[in-house]
Amino acid sequence: MNPSLLDVRFLHADNSDYGEEWSGTRLNDDYHRLYHIVSGSAQVRYDGHDCTLTEGCSYLFPPTAHFSYRCPNYLSLQNVCFKMTVLGGVDVLKLQPSLFKVVRPDEDNMTTTMASLHDALGEAMTFADQITAHGRLFQLLAPHFAIDETAQDRTRRQSVVRLMGVLDYISKNLRSSIKVADLPDRAGMSRSHFVRSFTEALGMSPQAYIRRRRIELVKVDLRATQKSLALLSYETGFSSPSHLTREFRKLTGYTPNDYRRLDQPFE
C-alpha cells in the first residue's frame, strides 16, 4: 500500500507512571492505540483478546468495541491515540497485515521518540510540528508492519483501491444526501457487480457502510459537542432522533445519551 494514501489524525499522547489506580473499561473507541511499556506490566482485554503488556515492548491496538485495562502493581506507559485510514476512511489495519506486539531492541530510541512525539503534539501545532509528529509516528509504527503479506491481503487491498473513488465520495458527503443507487455508476460497475465487490472488500453492504461511518461521526460529535440528538440526526442523514438512536444502539450497544454520559477521557 502506498503510504502517501494514509490519512492520520492525532487524538492524544501521554507519558505517565501508574499504580493500581490504572484500571477501567472503555467502550467503542474508533481509534488506534500505540502503547510502549517502559517498565512494569499491565493486563488488557480487548474485544475478547487477553494480553499481558510487558516491559520493553510496543503494542498496536486496532479500534475496539470493548477495552479493559488493569495495572497489578506499577506501570510506566507511553502511549499515543490516533486514527489511521486510507482515503475513504478505511482502517489501515484491515488492509495491511501488522504485528500486535513488537519487542523493541531499540528501547532507548523508542523511549526518546515517544517522548518527543508527546512534546510535538501541542495545542497549537505549526505545519512543521505536524510534519515532525507524522514522521515520528511512522518511525514508531514501521516495525509493526514488518510482516509479509499474503495473496489474500493483496487481493482485498486491490479490491478496496478499485472502490477508492466511491469511498472518498461517501466520506466527503456523510453530512449530506448520498444516493446508494448512484454509487455503481461512480465505480464504473453494474449494480450487482458493485454490491458484490463492495461487500467482499469491506465486509458489509454499501448501505451498512454508510450507516457505520455516520455513526462514527455522531460518536465524535457526542464526545466533542453538546449538540442535541435532533440536530445530530439532521446533520448525519438520519430521519429522526429515534432512527439515530435505534441505529446507534445496534452498532454500539448504547443509546447516544448513554454513550455521551459514559464516555471518558483517553487512557
UniProtKB/TrEMBL annotation:
Pfam families: HTH_18 (PF12833). Keywords: DNA-binding, Transcription, Transcription regulation. The keyword Transcription applies. InterPro entries: AraC_XylS_family_regulators, Homeodomain-like_sf, HTH-like, HTH_AraC. One of its GO terms (molecular function) is DNA-binding transcription factor activity. Residues 164-262 form the HTH araC/xylS-type domain. SMART domains: HTH_ARAC. The keyword Transcription regulation applies. This is AraC-type DNA-binding protein. It comes from Litoreibacter albidus.
